[in-house]
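Here is the promised in-class demo. Please do not try to memorize the tokens; focus on the logic of going from shape to residues.
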């Protein structure tokens, strides 16, 4: 039993060498490097978590990415969204009320949107396309997309200079 638990922990903390891991650096709220792992049993395409040893991870499921059926741009937003949960400390500080939960979702959306606005070439145009794609996402696809079912309105809800 201990052997299989050790194997599971090792697999959970093994870094992904695919495109997602090479796309950007993601720190947690303590500036610790977040590790990329694959976890084929999870429903969401990407989830922020901590391993049993306290290592921050972004757990990805390639099959869920395919089932999500969104563009590579929206997939990148999904990664940024989950990275933001580590950066902002939401993974270790869960909300205590619905209002706090809504605020955390809004903060994560805006952090991800800011990554496009400030760090991506033609970020404003990309944000418009991402916003339209997310807002048109059918409910059946939200099972795989990170976060709750929601509409995003970056210009109205996020601060951009």
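The designed amino acids, position by position:
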């Amino acid at each position: 039993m201990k052997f299989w638990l050790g194997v599971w922990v090792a697999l959970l903390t093994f870094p992904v060498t695919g495109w997602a891991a090479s796309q950007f650096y993601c720190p947690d709220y303590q500036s610790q490097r977040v590790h990329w792992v694959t976890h084929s049993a999870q429903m969401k395409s990407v989830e922020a978590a901590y391993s049993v040893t306290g290592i921050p991870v972004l757990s990805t499921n390639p099959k869920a990415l395919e089932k999500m059926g969104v563009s590579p741009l929206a997939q990148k937003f999904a990664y940024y969204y989950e990275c933001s949960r580590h950066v902002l400390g939401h993974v270790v500080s869960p909300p205590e009320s619905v209002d706090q939960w809504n605020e955390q979702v809004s903060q994560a959306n805006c952090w991800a949107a800011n990554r496009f606005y400030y760090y991506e070439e033609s970020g404003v145009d990309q944000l418009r396309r991402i916003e339209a794609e997310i807002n048109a996402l059918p409910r059946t696809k939200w099972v795989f997309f990170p976060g709750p079912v929601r509409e995003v309105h970056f210009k109205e809800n996020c601060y951009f200079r």
